[in-house]
Design brief:
Elements (H helix, E strand, L loop, with lengths): L1 H22 L3 H24 L5 H24 L5 H23 L8 H19 L5 H39 L1
Length: 179
């Protein structure tokens, strides 16, 4: 399916971003890769919905690639001094938990679709990362404010997904009680 091919393209952008950011010190190139990644994420979602190409594989693969790019970007920006360790620790812990829970559910043949709050967090992530790099000399308090907005959206998303999983588990338990 075309959306999964686009997602695979995004997967190949992850090491390109890391290379540009960490090895050759090309911030504008890294920003360009981040923008291409974000736009291709939007495009594959539109194509999947508009042409009914949504697959269970895509429901897992697309957010997994998003998380890989996000973790890579956070790590690279932290190494470069754009993002403090406390921030990267919170976000990476949440993302790793989401990946683990998603894989466990996938192995149990349970697919949890992306929600508006997950998409909102992804948009905020890309905006904040781009702003931190493009305006790298912004005042410290503006930098911290952007990071606090990002962390708040990440925590909100984690809480909302957690509630969704608890609700889902209750439904599954009730179905088991009926049978």
């Amino acid at each position: 399916m075309i959306p999964n091919i686009i997602t695979t393209f995004r997967l190949f952008l992850v090491p390109v971003f890391a290379y540009l950011m960490l090895i050759v010190d090309n911030l504008w190139g890294a920003c360009t890769v981040l923008v291409i990644s974000a736009l291709s994420d939007i495009i594959d979602g539109i194509i999947a919905r508009k042409f009914n190409m949504i697959t269970d594989t895509g429901k897992v693969y697309d957010p997994l690639v998003d998380k890989l790019m996000q973790i890579t970007a956070l790590f690279a920006l932290s190494v470069r001094g754009f993002v403090p360790v406390w921030c990267i620790s919170i976000i990476i812990a949440k993302e790793l938990i989401m990946i683990l829970v998603g894989l466990i559910l996938y192995l149990k043949k349970i697919i949890v679709q992306a929600s508006w709050y997950g998409k909102m967090t992804t948009v905020i992530f890309y905006i904040v990362m781009l702003l931190l790099v493009i305006f790298k000399d912004m005042p410290y308090f503006v930098n911290m404010l952007l990071l606090l907005v990002l962390v708040a959206s990440v925590l909100f998303s984690a809480f909302a997904y957690g509630r969704q999983l608890i609700s889902f588990k209750k439904e599954v338990d009730q179905i088991g009680d009926i049978n």
